[in-house]
Amino acid sequence: MQHITSLINTASLSVEREDSKYQSALDPHISAIVDKLFVFFYSICRGFDKQYQDPKRLNIEKTQWIKAFMDIGFNTLEKVQLGVKKCRLESPINTPTIGQFVKWCTPSAQDLGIPDIEDAYLEACKNSHFAISEKQWSHPAVYHAWSMCKSFDLANLPKKNSFPIFERNYDITVKMILNGEPLKPIPVAITYDRHKRKTSCQLDLKNTTVMRKLEQPCKAC
Q1: Which one, out of 61, 111, 139, 160, has a CA that is 20 to 30 A from the CA of 176?
Q2: Residue 221 belongs to some domain of the structure
């Protein structure tokens, strides 16, 4: 049986693929990226030799990775660098699944240095105070969410009233950033005041009762 190390050429970073009919359909640039990625897996995953004892299985696996990368547009080394970093930290025994590696490549709020909601809220409230003339922001996400709120509310309302407003704006802002979208104005949420609705219903019922009494014929007539 041919050992796995003889199949990987660390100089050219290429692996022979037995099924040549797929060669023309595969992006050569992405194929080179996957070749480099599997060299990395070989160096970091202790079970790589056992996992790919059959060279045909290795070729099929790499072909699936190439096709997946073509589907999602992973066509540069920069797009897989975060996944490589997280994989190195995880040091898995076997090669990660395509789905797991793509998740590692997808930056989280923490990866982008975006503060958590509590820290962002405290920062927004602090910068809403009238005494703060020169506002300092830890991240554009905090500023954008703050700018979508009323600074007077953040500075004066109790947390139970102001926090939900800021939290909504901050969640939407963070999603924009994670999706690679430009920051844009956030529509004002339509709130539902249960007490006001209850009072309105009571008035409607009272008015209906009064109208019915007025419509009744007068006994004295």
Answers
A1: 160
A2: no
